[in-house]
Amino acid sequence: MRLENKVVVVTGAGRGIGKGIAVRLAEEGANIVVADVNLEIATSAVDEIKELGRKALPVKTDVSKWDDAQNLIASTVREFGRIDVLVNNAGINRDAMLHKMASEQWDQVIAVNLTGTFNCMKAAATVMREQEYGRIVNISSAGWLGNIGQANYSASKAGVIGLTKTAARELAKKNITVNAICPGFIDTEMTRGVPDKVWEIMVSKIPMGKVGTPRDIGNMVAFLASDDASYVTAEVINVGGGMIL
Ligand SMILES: NC(=O)c1ccc[n+]([C@@H]2O[C@H](COP(=O)([O-])OP(=O)(O)OC[C@H]3O[C@@H](n4cnc5c(N)ncnc54)[C@H](O)[C@@H]3O)[C@@H](O)[C@H]2O)c1
Q1: pTM > 0.85: yes or no
Q2: Which atom of ligand 1 approaches the CA of 140 most closely?
């Protein structure tokens, strides 16, 4: 129970890695705000968290919109009085080779993955600065190092790392840590969309020989959000079974 009664916001927590993080942190005693653009899946994730005996609140949020991000943080403070932990997990991919990538594909991915992370961090930072306490964990990706067909995604995730390191420096004196996690290849609906052949190639590149689970990422978030990591900030931590060397 390392996070007993902490107030945690997880974006994109309706399914996949975000839901895995939300459930894992609830197991550590946290109350969870489940933010997702899809209210239906957010509500069913909330039901699951409540079964663990924790409080949970669904908030329909499109992180790419500043007004939604502001409303998310305001709703959290209205319901729980504070915000201890923000996990920026919401993300999308719209893959295409650079020479075929439509401007819309570029814009959508940057808007959700990078601007969305900025929006939620900006809104939460105001509250966390006043509290003089906070933990921010941003979900980047192994893809930040470059991946064929993912110019938009890779650039957005590299941007998240720059944002993480700058915010970490700005907020350090206010007792707020900011770290990023780079998941490797994790079994979610996002990756289940890849053809079987690509899946096999991806798994063959993982030294541990298996895909990761949302819970594997949740375990690292639980550590970074806890007091065990109170002197850890501005770090980028790979969780990929050795995939990122
Ligand atoms: N799955 C992987 O292998 C992998 C690897 C590295 C990084 N990641 C990152 O992890 C995060 C979660 O990925 P996933 O695999 O669980 O994906 P997913 O598609 O299964 O889930 C993404 C969630 O985000 C929500 N979402 C999408 N757009 C949103 C928006 N504008 N505002 C709020 N919520 C929104 C979706 O409704 C969904 O619930 C993403 O940032 C992704 O880039 C995933």
Answers
A1: yes
A2: 7
